[in-house]
Amino acid sequence: MRHLNSGRKLNRTSAHRKALFRNMFLALMRAGRIKTTDAKAKELRRVADRMVTLGKRGDLAARRRAFDFIRSHKLVKQLFDEIAPRFKDRNGGYTRVVKFGFRRGDAAPLSIIEFVGNEAQAQPKKRRRKQPKEGESGEQRAA
Q1: Neighbouring-strand partners of residue 33
Q2: Cα-Cα-Cα-Cα dihedral sign, residues 114, 81, 92, 9
Q3: SS3 assignment, position 101
Q4: Domain ranges across the chain
């Protein structure tokens, strides 16, 4: 029975899972949003929320624990100085997982995981279609 066994194994060893989620979290920090499989996104949500909570604590012990996971002084600084202050009034739920469709090769369900509050970056600008000039009715010009 699976009582009190939380988390997905994802068919990987524990060291491989730790490396996977470290790399995925760093990609999420750099880009703000990433596309991955549904199961990985749901597990990454747990990791990301814990790291943002460490960033909100802001003390030296929290910085050291974050560095133990992130392994980059530059990204630890970004976590504590840029990402965590955005969520100072929010208690948990710092990331959003949105279903995205299915992967072409194996039909694995895909999701986008992003930090909450990235709505301004999320929407690409809509391009207006060029109106045809007067006299052109959509016909091809003779060459």
Answers
A1: 114
A2: positive
A3: strand
A4: 14-115
What is the model's pLDDT at position 133?
73
Query: Residue 33 burial (CB < 10 Å; 0-12/13-18/19+)?
Result: middle
| Whether the Cβ atoms of residue 117 and residue 89 lie closer than 8 Å to each other | no
- The residue type of 57 is R
pTM of the model: 0.81
Find the DSSP H helices in 12-114: 14-31, 38-57, 60-70, 73-78, 84-86
Q: Return the residue matching tokens 């066994």.
A: 5
- When computed from its CA atoms, the radius of gyration of the chain, rounded to whole angstroms, is 21
* pLDDT value for 130: 73
pLDDT digits (tens, 9 = 90+) for 60-101: 999 999 999 999 999 999 999 999 999 999 999 999 999 999
CATH number of the 14-115 domain:
3.90.1030.10
Measured in degrees and rounded to the nearest 5, phi and psi for residue 98 equal: -120, 130
**Structural tokens at position 95:** 């990331």
